[in-house]
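Sanity check. The docking grid for adenosine-5'-triphosphate depends on where the pocket ends up, so I'm generating a full predicted complex first rather than guessing from homology. Inputs follow.
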Amino acid sequence: MSAPLLETKGLKKYFDTSLGPLHAVDDVSLAINAGETLGVVGESGCGKSTLGRLILRLLEPTAGEVVFDGQNILSYDRRKMKEMRKQMQIIFQDPFSSLNPRMTVSEIIAEPIKVTSALPTQDAILERVFELMGIVGLAERFVNTYPHELDGGRRQRIGVARALALNPRFIVCDEPVSALDVSIQAQILNLMMDLQEEMGLTYMFITHDLSVVKHISNNIAVMYLGQCVELAKTDELFENPVHPYTQGLLGAIPVPSLSARKHFNIMKGEVTSPINPHPGCRFAQRCPEATPRCAEPGLELKEISPGHFVSCYSHI
Ligand SMILES: Nc1ncnc2c1ncn2[C@@H]1O[C@H](COP(=O)(O)OP(=O)(O)OP(=O)(O)O)[C@@H](O)[C@H]1O
Ligand SMILES: [Mg+2]
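Predicted complex below; grid placement will be based on this.
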């Protein structure tokens, strides 16, 4: 069994707001084995992007640890962290807003190489840019074009090439295909899986759409209002979802045949506020199975079968 490359331990991020502390990420402990993918799913605002940014230290956590290759990187100084960032990259959802519109494809892909002085000459940099374009399936003729001249799929290939420029080991993929047409989504997902196999990459793949992570993830973490409420191997999560929220998410996936749909309750209502959340289960107000006990504090993720963790009073 491979060892975790990335772990979070009790990771928290509370944002100060005029109404009180907003619990964006609240005590999240996860591990991702080297060469594997952890899918992180949940509705808008549940803290997925904040979790990704905390892991890369683009945001400083309120509490907890981020352990990369056995070392708590939160103790690193700026110089050490700059070195570490080469190994940890991020791909964003919307290549249109995350890529500088005034830079050409070549300039965008070359930027991380230049910033870190990773290659000595302009020729070596351009050679590497062409190599990366080949790796991600971007034709060389696009080298001097601007992002707005390309379609969404090609733009996201630029994002992938840029993330690969410094030979990272770990990539946070923050909704990288959510803005793309379904047919293009499959192309980018296939590309990312091929790259993972060839380069031994480790991914944290963030999405609000469970069906997107089904084929790419070894494990899936389901988040609700800043907390991980269920964590399991992908097949196990799809075949035996235990948390009512996970069941709700699965019930919301469109399936071609009505008879093929498992009869899970479709969720009702809105996500409650992450500001000063009450101490019990945060899903209780929307949960079809809620009981008075769900208001009690002290709910934790518990292992209900090997590798399958759930935080729900009905199952502990
Ligand atoms: N800088 C900030 N200041 C205050 N609140 C913030 C800040 N960044 C995020 N939040 C809040 O933290 C919570 C989690 O946000 P986050 O962007 O991590 O969610 P998400 O799961 O990525 O959502 P989406 O699916 O819409 O991308 C939200 O309630 C958001 O409003
Ligand atoms: Mg997000």
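Relevant for the grid: Residues 4-87+168-310 form a domain with the Rossmann fold fold (CATH 3.40.50.300).
Also worth noting: DSSP finds ten helices and twelve strands in the chain.
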